[in-house]
């Protein structure tokens, strides 16, 4: 029997009317988003770093695109997992977002098994935002000018050379371990409390090798304090076009970058995800924003919400294998 108005009781009609009214209210609320309420982008690192920089320039431009207020909240600690956990627990209403970086969503997950959330279930993706390359650098006084020369020197005296890292499980640490595994060489790790002392150790010659983020490396390269012999991206860095990629220097496919993505708590309504993605994508075409990012060797890689989960799984599997085969722990 087909349903018609006469076959419905008053209670059923009231229920349907309430449902339709609720749906209209939800649609209206999403259309009005974000309204007068601020949207917070959580950055899981301290102020002053590259993730904080990306978060702040993105928040400024997204405020204009959303016709609202987007702010940054720094929640550092435990290799980014504290900030990630806070967003995983947040209400999925579009007002708390996360600027995730692959050192946390693809690397730290294999070093902090009890972090209290699951990366693949806890977040809804808005999309990839940008990528920042890192350079394989040496102290100029060791007499190495190319990756081939570095590999040859390391093989002549296994374990005699050393590299600097800014902590177990850091991007620089894992990038170096990936390179050592790929090149089949033995170079000893010396861990420092942060990127600045690690770079200083390279400059003074306390260590001979280090992966250095581009924004730090470029002025030191220009000053002759360090020598970049390889770039970690598949294409050459446009700010240092004479430095070959590691991939073209005998190690095809080698890639190790800092990769930023905008995420929301799982369950955030799809229309809000779409609105945020549209605002993010528009922000990343703004000439002033692009120039500020490029000056810090950060380049847009805007992706769709649908593409990010597969990318995250691929990155996670890649770094899980490096961590396993190299026996990396936080102990």
Structure, explained:
This protein starts with 9 loop residues before the first helix and ends in a 6-residue tail after the last helix. It is of the alpha/beta class and 331 residues long. It has helices at residues 10-32, 50-66, 81-88, 102-107, 119-122, 147-156, 171-183, 195-204, 214-223, 270-283, 287-295, 308-325; strands spanning 39-43, 70-74, 96-101, 123-132, 134-138, 162-165, 188-191, 209-213, 227-231, 258-265, 299-300. The chain is globular and about 65 Å long. The chain contains 12 helices and 11 strands. 43% of the residues lie in helices and 18% in strands. The strands form 2 sheets. Strands 2-1-3-10-4-11 form a 6-stranded mixed β-sheet, sandwiched between helices. Strand 1 (39-43), helix 2 and strand 2 form a beta-alpha-beta unit.
Which helices and strands appear, and what pairs or packs with what?
Elements: H1 10-32, E1 39-43, H2 50-66, E2 70-74, H3 81-88, E3 96-101, H4 102-107, H5 119-122, E4 123-132, E5 134-138, H6 147-156, E6 162-165, H7 171-183, E7 188-191, H8 195-204, E8 209-213, H9 214-223, E9 227-231, E10 258-265, H10 270-283, H11 287-295, E11 299-300, H12 308-325
Parallel strand pairs: 1-2, 1-3, 6-7, 6-8
Antiparallel strand pairs: 3-10, 4-10, 4-11, 5-8, 5-9
Helix pairs in contact: 2-10
């Amino acid at each position: 029997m087909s349903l018609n108005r006469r076959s419905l009781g008053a209670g059923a009609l009231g229920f349907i009317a309430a449902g339709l009214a609720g749906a209209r209210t939800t649609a209206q609320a999403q259309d009005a988003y974000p309204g007068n309420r601020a949207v917070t982008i959580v950055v899981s690192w301290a102020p002053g770093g590259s993730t904080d920089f990306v978060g702040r320039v993105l928040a400024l431009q997204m405020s204009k695109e959303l016709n609202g207020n987007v702010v940054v909240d720094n929640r550092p600690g435990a290799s980014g997992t504290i900030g990630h956990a806070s967003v995983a627990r947040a209400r999925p209403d579009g007002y708390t977002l996360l600027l995730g970086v692959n050192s946390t969503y693809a690397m730290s997950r294999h070093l902090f098994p009890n972090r209290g959330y699951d990366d693949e279930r806890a977040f809804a993706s808005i999309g990839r935002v940008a990528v920042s390359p890192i350079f394989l650098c040496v102290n100029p006084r060791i007499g190495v000018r190319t990756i081939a020369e570095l590999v040859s020197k390391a093989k002549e005296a296994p374990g005699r050379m050393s590299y600097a890292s800014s902590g177990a499980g850091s991007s620089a640490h894992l990038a170096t371990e990936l390179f050592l595994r790929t090149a089949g060489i033995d170079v000893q790790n010396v861990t420092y409390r942060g990127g600045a002392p690690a770079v200083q150790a390279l400059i003074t010659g306390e260590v001979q090798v280090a992966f250095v983020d581009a924004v730090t490396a470029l002025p030191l390269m220009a000053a002759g304090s360090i020598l970049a012999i390889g770039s970690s991206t598949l294409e050459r860095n446009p700010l240092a076009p004479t430095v070959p990629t590691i991939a073209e220097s005998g190690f095809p496919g080698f890639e190790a970058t800092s990769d930023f993505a905008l995420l929301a708590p799982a369950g955030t309504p799809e229309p809000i995800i779409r609105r945020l993605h549209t605002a993010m994508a528009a922000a990343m075409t703004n000439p002033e924003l692009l120039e500020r990012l490029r000056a810090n060797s950060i380049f847009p890689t805007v992706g769709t919400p649908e593409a990010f989960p597969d990318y995250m799984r691929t990155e996670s599997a890649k770094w899980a294998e490096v961590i396993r085969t190299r026996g990396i722990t936080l102990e």
